[in-house]
């Protein structure tokens, strides 16, 4: 715990909150922000630069109600070799938010339905965060394939299909809800011609025959 005015300031998952400080401690904290010893992440939330070196932060403190998604989710599920240059977080479409200068955060503005659909609470690098689940993350890659690149989209889908735990029926149901079922079907047609896991050939054929699509 950091000490200001000779007293400890209780940390909340690596952050120092204004609510935990005395008036004098808060004044000292603002002075340390000016000297660069501390960073002001958002009103009332501060951190030492070294504490931000982790690969994941407590997004509920930085961006309450945000959902970790896209590149950050793909990195978590080991679906892509792409290294995210910022934390990817989805927030409500109409929400106004001022981002801190550090850490770098890329915002995605989603409808309330998309923020609730296919999202879970999970532990990521020691932090409990709200994140898109595995199948939702794959479908997002398909949905935004033109923005992220077709090669990245294909890499993510191939990595998913190679996983023993992949759930093709669930994936196709998600694809329907996100209106990318037709695109997923095209990818699966290519996969059936050169399947990476033999015991999933029949499942993919059922999908293409119309059982799930």
Walkthrough of the structure:
- Helices cover 41% and strands 21% of the residues.
- It contains ten helices and eleven strands.
- The strands form four sheets. It has a four-stranded antiparallel beta sheet with strand order 3-4-6-5, with helices on one face. The protein has a three-stranded mixed beta sheet with strand order 7-8-9.
- The chain is elongated.
Strand count: 11
The helix content is 40-55%
Main β-sheet, in a few words?
4 strands, antiparallel
Net shape: elongated
How far do the termini sit from each other?
54 Å
Q: What's the arrangement of strands in the largest beta sheet?
A: 3-4-6-5
The total count of helices amounts to 10
Beta strand % = 15-25%
Please write the string of helix (H) and strand (E) elements.
EEEEHEEHEHEEHEEHHHHHH
> What value does the Rg take, in angstroms?
21 Å
Topology:
Elements: E1 2-4, E2 7-9, E3 11-12, E4 15-17, H1 23-35, E5 39-42, E6 45-47, H2 59-62, E7 67-68, H3 70-76, E8 87-92, E9 105-110, H4 112-116, E10 119-124, E11 127-132, H5 134-143, H6 145-148, H7 150-161, H8 168-177, H9 181-193, H10 201-209
Helix pairs in contact: 5-7, 5-8, 8-9, 9-10
